[in-house]
Amino acid sequence: MVGGGEQAVERLAPVFDALACDGSEGWGHVGPAGAGHFVKMVHNGIEYGMMQAYAEGFAIMAESDRFDLDNHAISHIWRHGSVVRSWLLDLTADALKEGAELGDIAPFVPDSGEGRWTVREAIDLNVPAPVITASLLQRIQSRDDRSFAHRLLSAMRNKFGGHSVKKRGS
């Protein structure tokens, strides 16, 4: 997600190729200066919504007392051949493998600002973004409750970006 002049981007292409996880397929010139940051902001807003959906779905299964569900096993199944498969689901499976109940993780999910920026931009542009907005509000709400969904969101953030996890009691 690179913004800038065409010549500058061409000159730096080998650097972007080296940094991207998929080489030349892992990055792209998206427009003039500032466009890369804008596209990354929207990307992170979408990420908020996707993470929230996973957290809510797994929370429903974790709270169900009708079945003895293994959320880690389910996450592994969904990683292969399911329409909801993604790298975020891979990371979710990793987090659930380490501790299916996530009992040592405080249900506190920070936001680093990109979601807020995305929501503000959506409002300024009169573009409805209810999923991104709701996911941001859930992160804010997490600072007061003890939900499984918020513990899982915090674990996912740690897995994909190395973000710190607030432990219970700290």
Quick synopsis:
By secondary structure, the chain is mainly α. It has helices at 6-19, 35-63, 71-78, 87-98, 114-124, 130-141, 148-161; strands at 2-3, 29-31. Helix 1 (6-19) links the parallel strand 1 and strand 2.
Q: How much helix is in the residues?
A: 55-70%
Q: What spatial order of strands do you see in the largest sheet?
A: 1-2
How many helices in DSSP terms?
A: 7
Largest sheet: 2 strands, parallel
> What's the average pLDDT?
91
Number of DSSP-assigned strands: 2
Please state roughly what percent of the residues sit in beta strands, choosing from under 5%, 5-15%, 15-25%, 25-35%, 35-45% or over 45%. under 5%
Describe this structure in words.
This protein has 170 residues and is mostly helical. It is built from seven helices and two strands, in the order βαβαααααα. It has helices at residues 6-19, 35-63, 71-78, 87-98, 114-124, 130-141, 148-161; strands spanning 2-3, 29-31. Strands 1-2 form a two-stranded parallel sheet. Helix 1 links the parallel strand 1 (2-3) and strand 2. Helix 2 packs across helix 6 and helix 2 packs across helix 7 (148-161). The radius of gyration is 18 Å and the shape is globular. The relative contact order is 0.15. The model has no long low-confidence stretch (mean pLDDT 91).
Features:
two-stranded parallel ribbon, 2 strands, 3% strand, 170 residues, mainly alpha, 7 helices
